[in-house]
């Protein structure tokens, strides 16, 4: 029974995953580290991890450490970045919700380059005028048990590698069993596309 549950769980999780329609489309292959004056006005789709936020003149600007996007257009969970960028969107984005460490995917036009210091280093941030933004749910972890074993199986319960006559043989056992920790793929938590935030479950 246990063998059937694990593949079934994987299929259920995969079936619940979808690409938000606000993120779909074709975009040029420009990384934040490649942005310059020649790319101003270009509409791009970038994503990553929020490093911080600030509010000014009725606009919220998120500082984001970019990450590659997976096939669902979520930032990948990896130790690689193609640079930092700033995503600005009109309105107030609560810093408790759009907190440091949360993952987002953004779409917008490259407005300009803003230079800031990082530990004494002058860093050039491309700034996006963001029109679509998806905040992803926090990643959850589960433990998957691999292999085949019975929880009540003991190799030599009587201290001898043979089963005594008349004793029932225990549940069959083969192969090694080990636990593997996995991260569940997160779904969209907040979606914005030029309108107030809506929850995915509120959509028709």
What structural keywords apply?
single chain, 204 residues, mainly beta, OB fold (Dihydrolipoamide Acetyltransferase, E2P), 2 domains, 5-stranded mixed beta barrel, two-stranded antiparallel sheet, 1 helix, 8 strands, disordered C terminus
Descriptive account of the structure:
- The chain has two domains: 2-139 and 185-202, Beta Barrel (OB fold (Dihydrolipoamide Acetyltransferase, E2P)), CATH 2.40.50; 142-180, no CATH class.
- It has one helix spanning 2-15, and strands at residues 43-56, 59-66, 84-90, 103-118, 121-136, 140-148, 174-184, 188-193.
- The radius of gyration is 24 Å and the shape is globular.
- Strand 4 and strand 5 form a beta hairpin.
- Helices cover 7% and strands 43% of the residues.
- It starts with a helix and ends in an 11-residue tail after the last strand.
- It contains one helix and eight strands; from the N terminus they run αββββββββ.
- A five-stranded mixed barrel has the order 1-2-3-5-4. The chain has a two-stranded antiparallel ribbon with strand order 6-7.
- The model is unreliable at 1-15, 165-169 and 195-204 (pLDDT under 50).
- With 204 residues, it is mostly beta strands.
Number of individual domains: 2
SSE pattern, N- to C-terminal: HEEEEEEEE
Distance between the termini: 37 Å
Please provide the count of β strands: 8
Q: Provide the β-strand percentage band.
A: 35-45%
**CATH architecture label name of the largest domain:** Beta Barrel
Which CATH class of the largest domain? Mainly Beta
Major sheet, described briefly?
Answer: 5 strands, mixed, barrel
* Count of DSSP-assigned helices: 1
Q: Cα-atom Rg, whole angstroms?
A: 24 Å
Structural class: mainly beta
Q: Name the CATH superfamily classification of the largest domain.
A: Nucleic acid-binding proteins
CATH fold annotation of the largest domain: OB fold (Dihydrolipoamide Acetyltransferase, E2P)
Contiguous uncertain segments of 5+ residues: 1-15, 165-169, 195-204
Strand order of the largest sheet: 1-2-3-5-4
Mean pLDDT, all residues: 77
Helix content: under 10%
Shape designation:
globular
């Amino acid at each position: 029974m246990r063998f059937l549950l694990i593949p079934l769980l994987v299929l259920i999780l995969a079936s619940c995953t979808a690409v938000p329609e606000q993120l779909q489309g074709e975009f040029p292959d420009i990384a934040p580290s490649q942005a310059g004056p020649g790319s101003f006005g270009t509409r791009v789709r970038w994503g990553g991890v929020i490093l911080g936020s600030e509010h000014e003149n009725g606009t919220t600007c998120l500082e984001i450490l970019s990450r590659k996007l997976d096939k669902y257009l979520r930032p990948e969970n990896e130790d690689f970045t193609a640079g930092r960028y700033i995503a600005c969107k009109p309105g107030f984005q609560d810093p408790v919700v759009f907190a440091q460490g949360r993952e987002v995917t953004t779409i917008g036009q490259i407005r300009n380059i803003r230079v800031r210091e990082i530990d004494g280093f002058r860093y050039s941030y491309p700034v996006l005028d963001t029109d679509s933004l998806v905040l992803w749910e926090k990643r959850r972890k589960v433990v998957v048990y691999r292999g085949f074993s019975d929880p009540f199986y003991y190799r030599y319960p009587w201290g001898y590698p043979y089963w005594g006559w008349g004793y029932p043989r225990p549940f069959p056992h083969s192969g090694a069993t080990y636990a593997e920790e996995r991260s569940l793929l997160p779904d969209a938590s907040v979606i914005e596309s030029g309108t107030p935030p809506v929850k995915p479950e509120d959509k028709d």
